[in-house]
Design goal:
Elements (H helix, E strand, L loop, with lengths): L8 E2 L2 E2 L11 E5 L7 E7 L2 E12 L12 E8 L15 H15 L10 E11 L4 H15 L8 E9 L2 E4 L3 H6 L2 E8 L5 E4 L2 E2 L3 H32 L8
Parallel strand pairs: 6-7
Antiparallel strand pairs: 1-2, 3-4, 4-5, 5-7, 8-9, 8-10, 10-11, 10-12
This protein binds adenosine-5'-diphosphate.
Length: 246
Amino acid sequence: MNMEEIKLLKDGKRLDGRALDELRTIRIEAGVLNQADGSALVEWGKNKVVCGVFKPGECIPRHEASPYEALLKVRYTMSPFASLEEHGRSGPSRRSTELSKVIREVFENVVLTEEFPGAQIQIYIDVLQADGGTRVAAITAASVALANAGIPMRDMVAAVAVGKIDGRLAVDLGKDEDNFGQSDTPVAIAHRTSEFLLLQMDGQLTREELMQATAMALEATEEVHAKQKEALLQYYEKGKRGELQL
Ligand code: ADP
């Protein structure tokens, strides 16, 4: 297939009818799992991501424990039915290892790990359905799940991907836009400080485009943050627990 032939914009609109600065529909629910200390479900367009978090506990293996801070253990996995693409059966892949690592690094910046020396904090992310942008949906879910578990953090984190399709910058790329566009740049931003905790880039953007893309990401993550906040407020207002509604 010739990538040049695939048109991702028609009359200024994207193939799913969205404007360039429009996010897919995002639904977030906190506290969806009974056996995790904190959890969240994020439905972001066709993505479905669940995150379960365990409170600080004994670090295993013990020789890894740090006397100064808690270790974050992050495991991102994509279920075998998450996508049409062949991605082997369960078990770690290069991609899931990378994603687990970058997600861990995001949260090492905001979780107050120094309050729990010798401990580990486990964050499990399961992608049930994937449609482009699962790492940003995963980060968004993990931030809500950590807050839901009552784990102290300096800040909440919201994430979004910005990219370039048919020569134009667009927020929140879907899978086809991600695969056939010219750039995919996922970012995660701390809400209070606007600090960028993740910035990856596939493809190419000029310096000006990157500046513009980051400004678009800042604006879009405000919207994502509002949904996160709403989900947490709703959880604590209604005292909901253990209802996984897909
Ligand atoms: P992200 O999900 O964060 O956008 P990628 O850019 O690696 O991460 O992938 C883009 C999309 O392509 C994914 O959301 C998913 O829909 C699909 N995809 C990528 N890698 C795989 C894989 N190994 N197995 C199944 N689907 C995949």
